[in-house]
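Reply to dn_fold:

You asked what the input looked like. This is it:
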Amino acid sequence: MSVHSLVYPLTTEEELFLKHETMRDFFIQELKALRESVSSVQKAAQDDLKAFTEVTEVNFMEELQCREDTQTAPDAGGNSKTALQKVEVPVKAMEESVVNRMVTLEGKLEAALPRLTAMEADVCSSPLLSSGPVQEADTFVHIQHPSSQSSIKPTQGATFTLTRRGRTASIPVQPSASSPLLSSVPLQEVESSDELEFPTLTQSVSSGYQQQVTWTKCKLVESLIDLTADLATSLKPHMSEKISRQEKLSRLQVAYFHHQLERLKVNNTKGLYEKTNFIKEAGERDGLWSPGWSPCGSKDMQQYLAEKIKTTLKKMRRSEMVVEEEKLALKQKLQF
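and this is what came back:
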């Protein structure tokens, strides 16, 4: 049986809804870009400060060595002073660079703070946020009906398919000559209630039936402002961590994942099933991902979290080895 698709023009309410959604997405993207810019500047300043600290430490050790050489060999005092002056020149240059970067960072933060505050106020005051932040697709209405050449039976009719925020419901609808197919689904009712209840779309025929579908909306978060104060504070240190291009989770979801690893004190794969199940359920409860959702290419969320924990533990071990090697190299360098 062939199937035809009907596309209805948007109503005034639907056009207004799409405009608000577009405006909201624009504000969110601008807010994310501003936060990433501030995070990158902060990271650059931290790197400069770390480099300055390392150079200062090396300079201090060189100065001690020069003083010891001066005391043990008075005739070589001139050479020691020359060596000390050579070390002080790059140290002063590094110090000036760090100070300049810190001043630039403070200026950028002061300039960005009013803009960030204004954008957060605009996003939070948007009426679309009253129904909770979303992460999936918008609302699409699609109607399929049997071909006009085939006869319509009492148990056969059009199918009303509503896809909202990644969830789909198909409702069999009986044909009726006295009422249109889309006369009983006002958009404002969908937006204003957490329980979405769709009544019968048309009048029932004599031998037909009526059917209703009810589900609960899944509210997902998009930024720290959508979380509770305690959870947002816990996730904030992890938001500046570097994310690989192969990462399938968002920056906020990755930060939540690392927060849960710290909370559970995960340092091995013992009890991996219980740990992944706890993280999965906690993420669903806190609105980081919807129940039943999993990243693309993964069988389920729990399997993906298990593989991610194993990968994270391997990276932690490699980082610890690199740190130990650097400490050993520094000790050997100071001994000479």
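The first strand starts at residue 3 and ends at 6.
Hope that clears it up.
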